[in-house]
Write a structure and sequence with these properties.
The structure holds 2 protein chains of 2 kinds. Chain A is α/β, with parallel strands linked by helices. Chain A is built from 10 helices and 8 strands. In chain B, α5 packs antiparallel against α6, α7 packs parallel to α8 and α7 packs parallel to α12. Classes of the chains: A alpha/beta, B alpha/beta.
Chain lengths: 298, 596
């Protein structure tokens, strides 16, 4: 029999609705990601005020405004750096980082790599549409070779980055890929990513219906294959994950590529946080400690 | 004139210039003598030339001074570079086995130490340094026990044998000097006081700890790295999270993240790193999340001269980040002030929810000064401003009349709820936003709302101005010349004024500590009756002079500027003032005589 605590409000989808409705183009893949995040938070019953959603700049980075949690809509490419600061100052918060492929793999590429190797306990969701949308359609770090855009009108001649193998190489301890059109599967991955203690990377195919005419919902639908459907696939096997990450074409794997749980998250590895979150700590240095600092200089 | 005694130690990097310097500093401060140490060095780990100046005396010492009383060259190069600086009454102690003295001025005592006869140099590679320290202390009239004590502490970890070996070598140098060299005319006194000796970087780090900083992050960059080192080595005792980040862009954004979550958060860098932080300062201003950034200036532009000092970043600070936004910028006046300025800046940043910039420079960051331990106050006023850190769990959500993060107020300050507080969820954005945080940058652009929010933020400027005192004139009210400086030149300008007053030219000083807010009206009032005004600064273009003019239309009678990487010495300013009062020039650029 279920026990209902009188002072605990059951959170529903409506509780996570933001102050304004999304301004994404009708049909944008990002709607599916927003709904899946809200559903995951409802399923996990995490109170709104204990969640911080942090983004950079771009279409998908408008995300924090559309969800009722604490939000930070920061600078282009800098969301992971800001999120690291938030998590280290108050590690009791659930920190979600949302953004696009240009934001995360282009201008924010350096922070992406270093946040992964640090194993900061955040879930990083990249709404990967393989294009720059808000700047009206330029080549992104994940645009395919040959794709014609306003910035490369004769076709892209640069190889795209592979976010999954990059994350595996950089030391992410949870690496997954979702598809915006598969709500149930995506919600499950988000829940796992939130619950994972360490850096969780979730690359989501979130097609741009306005500027990317190559990688559309229709293009992805027949290609995506869930790793969970293969009983032989072992997501604790890094080499197997690496091999799967290289698949692209007629078959594109989605699902959880890799997870390891044996490494501490950054906040758990730092003894300064043993006494609890910094935000609750006494700002004053104890007098005996202060005296010892001065004595060293005499 | 106050009485001081200055030691110059020169050698190659890696030859152990720092250790004798530390030993002298410890002995002087324990005698209750004040001291100022400045190390002219190069960006090289082994080799090159390093020249450490330690100036001491019973009264406050604020700069390297004009005179070297004792030179200790550790190699021929140091001898060749600096012997010519010595004048009557000075002495030079050197290793007679390896170094040949040049021609010394009259009255300079050459004191050769027969190093290989006094110590086993095959066993102890720095024996010449230890012998010289012992000899020097004998000539200064300081008892051997104080040296024995310091050496015992220094080598304690290496065991009794190493301690007694070094004490023995020092003793040999001490006794040899007592028997063979003439003592200095002025034996160094004992005052009964005790001072702490620290660098500006250590002072700013400790000031941060005192201010309640709980998050510090940085990317190593000379001359700011000392702040990181102190923070890192004291983090666990002080309960501070210290992170080394991949670049300064990451640094400032991580610091802002931590600040946004509710802790006091600080970072330090130099000009190049600060350039990368510029966009982040705008983020701090727009989200109204306070952060304190320290910029330790070095000679620029670009990589510039990483080990040399300059006051060349002022306009970078003034122009950092695009758009108009409230902020505070202050330059510490000395190393003791490096400590005090941090809690002050945090109170301003927290109260007005804006970035605060501390504009230091290599001279203070890496120089060392004796400070009264009482002045290192670890219980300063901590004013977090209008910060909401708790609320009942049943606090309403985002319904009608709900919490507005950017609420319009008369002061422009809106109470700031940190993530985790129930009932106060909101989005803080780098985009322009409405009172409740909703973006008015994209779909809901609105000129009326934009104007109102801009004015709300900028109302804080008046509050910051009222919270910070205007600068005050020091010295005689009426003077032949008024010297105007900012930040780290405080001590050397003050000493130049003393010398001028002694020489019959009355001089006073207006030193600027708060650059933003500047208090232009108060400055104009102070200067309106000045007979002759000269702005003294460590840069090429007169950055402060240009700033003062842009804010107040004030134009001084003259300028003294130095941009060779080395700090001012008092005589540079004195000579330039005389030259300008003589009417021949209005811009003086003193030459640095010490070749470093």
């Amino acid at each position: 029999m279920a026990t209902v605590l009188a002072d605990t409000k059951h959170l529903a989808m409506a509780d996570f609705k933001g102050k304004v409705d999304p301004d994404w183009c009708p049909g944008c893949g990002d709607f599916g990601v927003l709904a899946a995040v809200q559903k995951a938070l409802v399923d996990l019953q995490i109170p709104n005020h204990n969640v911080v959603t942090i983004s950079g700049i771009g279409c998908s980075s408008n995300f924090p405004g559309f969800i009722n949690t604490y939000g930070m809509h920061t600078l282009h490419g800098r969301a992971l750096a800001v999120a690291t600061g938030v998590k280290l100052a108050n590690h009791e918060l659930t920190v979600l980082v949302t953004g696009g492929d240009g934001d995360g793999f282009g201008i924010g590429g350096n922070h992406f790599m270093h946040t992964m190797r640090r194993n900061v306990d955040v879930l990083y969701i990249v709404m990967d549409n393989q294009i720059y949308g808000l700047t009206t359609g330029q080549t992104s770090p994940t645009s395919r070779v040959g794709m014609k855009t306003k910035s490369m009108p004769f076709g892209n001649i640069e190889s795209p980055v592979n976010p999954i193998s990059l994350a595996l190489t950089a030391g992410a301890t949870f690496v997954a890929r979702g598809f915006s059109a598969d709500q149930k599967h995506l919600t499950e991955l988000i829940k796992q990513g939130i619950q994972h203690q360490g850096f969780s990377f979730l690359d989501v195919f979130s097609p741009c219906v306005t500027y990317n005419h190559d990688n559309t919902f229709q293009w992805f639908r027949p290609r995506v294959k869930k790793l969970e459907d293969d009983p032989a696939y072992n997501s604790t096997d890094w080499m197997a994950a690496m091999e799967k990450s290289l698949l692209w074409g007629d078959e594109i794997p989605i699902g959880k590529f890799f997870e390891r749980t044996d490494l501490p998250a950054l906040h758990a590895a730092e003894p300064v946080l043993d006494a609890g979150p910094l935000v609750h700590s006494d700002p004053h240095i104890p007098p005996d400690v202060a005296r010892s600092f001065v004595e060293e200089l005499m | 004139m106050k009485k001081t005694f200055t030691i110059g130690i020169g050698g190659a990097a890696g030859q152990g210039v720092a250790t004798p310097g530390d030993i002298f500093a410890k002995i002087f401060s324990r005698r209750g003598l004040h001291l100022n140490a400045y190390n002219a060095y190069q960006s090289i780990i082994r080799g090159g030339h390093t020249f450490l100046t330690i100036r001491t005396g019973p009264e406050k010492v604020t700069n390297m001074g004009d005179r070297i009383d004792l030179l200790i060259p550790l190699n021929q190069d140091a001898m060749d570079r600096h012997l010519g600086l010595l004048t009557n009454g000075a002495a030079c102690i050197y290793n007679a086995d390896t170094i040949k003295p040049g021609a010394a001025a009259e009255g300079v005592a050459l004191c050769p130490l027969p190093v290989s006869k006094l110590a086993d140099i095959s066993r102890n590679k720095v024996a010449q340094n230890t012998l010289a320290v012992g000899a020097g202390l004998s000539m200064m009239g300081i008892g051997f026990q104080s040296l024995e004590q310091v050496l015992s502490e220094q080598f304690k970890k290496k065991g009794d044998a190493v301690v007694s070996e070094n004490v023995g070598i020092a003793r040999a140098g001490y006794d040899y000097a007592t028997a063979n060299f003439k003592s200095f005319a002025w034996p160094l006194p004992l005052t009964g006081k005790r001072y702490a000796v620290l660098s500006g970087n250590t002072a700013m780090a400790m000031g941060g700890a005192a201010a309640g900083v709980k998050f510090y992050c940085a990317y190593p960059m000379s001359p700011s790295t000392g702040v990181l080192h102190w923070m890192a080595s004291h983090a666990r005792k002080a309960g501070i999270m210290v992170r080394q980040v991949e670049d300064e862009i990451g640094v400032v954004n991580m610091a802002i993240g931590a600040a946004h979550a509710g802790v006091r958060s600080m970072c330090a860098t130099s000009g190049g790193g600060f350039a990368l932080m510029s966009e982040g300062l705008g983020l701090s201003a727009m989200m109204e999340t306070p952060v304190v950034v320290i910029d330790c200036q070095r000679a620029g532009p670009s990589t510039g001269v990483p080990t040399k000092t300059e006051q060349g970043d002022l306009w970078q600070m003034l122009g950092a980040a695009f758009g108009d936004y409230p902020r505070a910028i202050a330059a510490p006046l000395d190393i003791g002030d490096c400590f005090k300025i941090i809690p002050e800046m945090f109170n301003i940043a927290d109260r007005f929810q804006c970035p605060g910039i501390v504009l230091c420079d290599l001279l203070l960051s890496e120089g060392r000064l004796s400070v009264d331990p009482e002045d290192l106050d670890f219980a300063p006023v901590v004013d977090r401003g209008e910060l909401i850190t708790t609320a009942p769990a049943d606090s309403g959500s985002n319904g009608e009349g709900a919490y507005k993060r950017y609420k319009f107020t008369a002061s422009g300050i809106s109470p700031r709820a940190v993530p985790g507080v129930p009932g106060h969820t909101h989005t803080a954005a780098s985009d322009e936003h409405d009172e409740d945080g909703v973006l008015i940058s994209d779909e809901f652009t609105n000129p009326t709302k934009r104007r109102a929010m801009m004015e709300k933020r900028m109302r804080k400027v008046a509050g910051i101005e009222a919270a910070v005192p205007p600068p005050a004139l020091s010295g005689p009210r009426e003077a032949d010349v008024t010297l105007i400086g900012w930040g780290s030149t405080n001590g050397v300008i003050a000493e130049a004024c003393e010398i001028l007053n002694d020489q019959g030219i009355s001089a006073n000083q207006l030193q600027i500590r708060w650059l933003v807010p500047l208090h232009g009206e108060a400055i104009l009032n102070t200067l309106k009756n000045a007979r002759h005004t000269i702005i003294v600064e460590n840069n090429y273009s007169g950055q402060f002079a240009r700033y003062l003019r842009s804010e107040t239309s004030f134009v001084p009678n003259g300028h003294i500027r130095k941009y060779d990487g080395e700090p001012f010495m008092p005589h540079h300013i004195v000579a330039a003032v005389k030259e300008q009062l003589g009417g021949s020039v209005s811009l003086s650029v003193p030459a640095h005589e010490i070749l470093v």
